[in-house]
Amino acid sequence: MSNPIVHWVDGAEFTGTADNWADVTNPATGVVSGRVALANEADAQAVIDAAVRAAAGWAGTSLARRTQVIFAFRELLNARKDELAQLITAEHGKVHSDALGEIARGLEVVEFATGIAHLLKGGQSPNVSTGHDVHSRREPLGVVGIISPFNFPAMVPMWFFPIALAAGNAVVLKPSEKDPSAALWLARLWQDAGLPDGVFNVLQGDKTAVDALLTSPDIKAISFVGSTPIARYVYENAARNGKRVQALGGAKNHMVVLPDADLDLAADAAVNAGFGSAGERCMAVSVLVAVDPIGDELIAKIAERTNRVVVGDGTKGYAEKEADMGPLVTRAHRDKVASFIESGEKAGAKVVVDGREVRARGGADGFWLGPTLFDNVTPDMDIYTEEIFGPVLSVVRVGTYDEAVALINANKYGNGTAIFTNDGGAARRFEQDIQVGMIGINVPIPVPVGYYSFGGWKASLFGDSHAYGPEGVHFYTRAKVVTTRWIDPSNRPEGGLNLGFPRN
Ligand code: NAD
């Protein structure tokens, strides 16, 4: 079989025993580039067992050594990021510069994790009661599972594993079966960085692999990112099996433009955030809320820019410039997004720019769809209610700021949002009024930096811990509080019987 993409266990490739494989395709050509192993239960158990064997040794490794390994990984990844970006483009389709961007955002979390010694420091209170001292410590959980989506095959796993590993856990990563090679590449890099074998493992597969992680008593926590129905399923089942769980789901991110905004900058932002990565980002802007009276002028500016977006094969260098936007991830997903465009048109929205007419610079059988701009979208249309996850930007026109806020707060998702305005008072009010986890003020994709935490509200996140940053450290560790009394012979306590509840 050409290019089998298998599991990674105990520092080596592992083919597994399942005779179940899925095609991996280059979306820019439509050509199958590899076949990924889909684990059965026995394969999943073999991967989990390896992680269990390695976990205690790694948890007992000094903070100094663990930190050195994270630093080494950071250096290697930075030096070799171009290789990883090429792998991402070949299986996901996003253009090379965009793939480098996702690695850069993952590197931020690696850099945050190099400070783990500081982040794990506990508290200490001497003499809380006569002769009694208290200190706290945070310890790793054991083996943790990470289940990631197709759209960020490197960054999303890196939201989690640098902190999980730095904190002393062993990891089983279950990547998306659509673009599984990045995970294997990262596993090899951990080995090169000096991580002991078995501490970082990759389990390839689909629902069977996910269910094995959700039900295994050896997996102590689950970090999931993907669509809302699966996030809910993972949250409920992981919790039912007694695990700590954070499950990040889908999104419908609104960008509000107030009449006083700089419309040229707002139009640039809408196009970049709407169509970057072909709209396959959980923080993509998919709804633009134009507050009267700027709708016509703003839409004209967005349409002009949308028509200039170059769609093409991100694996190729073009003489003039790289393509701005690549293909969609699979043919099925491309067709689903195209069917949303048909449905929006039928429902009465105005197609201002039609991505179905795209002329892409790429293979004839690539999964192409150009950027599409809809005007006059209303909240009852399915192009508004559903997460399309493609290059489709819907403009909803409203009369006032209050209508814009009410629209966003009524939406079932609450991942990201942005407001474009030069009115500081309005921006400040927005930040208080809006029921969304991540807010941009004149910033269209407000993904928090690595030392804050990432997470949405409502159907965009199940569980209470956000990803990475301080909440990531908290999620991958558990607390102990130790109360100590050492007997000083020169000042020996009286002792004696006293069955009352101890008071300080
Ligand atoms: P998905 O839900 O189809 O798949 C995510 C993971 O779940 C994959 O590893 C997949 O193998 C597994 N999976 C799929 N079906 C399953 C099932 N029935 N049972 C158990 N496991 C299953 O998501 P996707 O299409 O890979 O990714 C796109 C989605 O991810 C979008 O909805 C996007 O908004 C969301 N996303 C959210 C964030 C965030 O931070 N909130 C970030 C990135 C992507």
From TrEMBL:
The gene is bauC_1. One of its GO terms (biological process) is L-valine catabolic process. Keywords: NAD, Oxidoreductase. InterPro entries: Ald_DH/histidinol_DH (IPR016161), Ald_DH_C (IPR016163), Ald_DH_CS_CYS (IPR016160), Ald_DH_N (IPR016162), Aldehyde_DH_dom (IPR015590), MeMal-semiAld_DH (IPR010061). The keyword NAD applies. One of its GO terms (molecular function) is methylmalonate-semialdehyde dehydrogenase (acylating, NAD) activity. Transmembrane segments: none annotated. This is methylmalonate-semialdehyde dehydrogenase (CoA acylating). CDD domains: ALDH_F6_MMSDH. Residues 21-482 form the Aldehyde dehydrogenase domain. Gene3D superfamilies: Aldehyde Dehydrogenase, Chain A, domain 1 (3.40.605.10), Aldehyde Dehydrogenase, Chain A, domain 2 (3.40.309.10). PANTHER family: MALONATE-SEMIALDEHYDE DEHYDROGENASE (PTHR43866). The keyword DNA damage does not apply. NCBIfam families: MMSDH. Its EC number is 1.2.1.27.
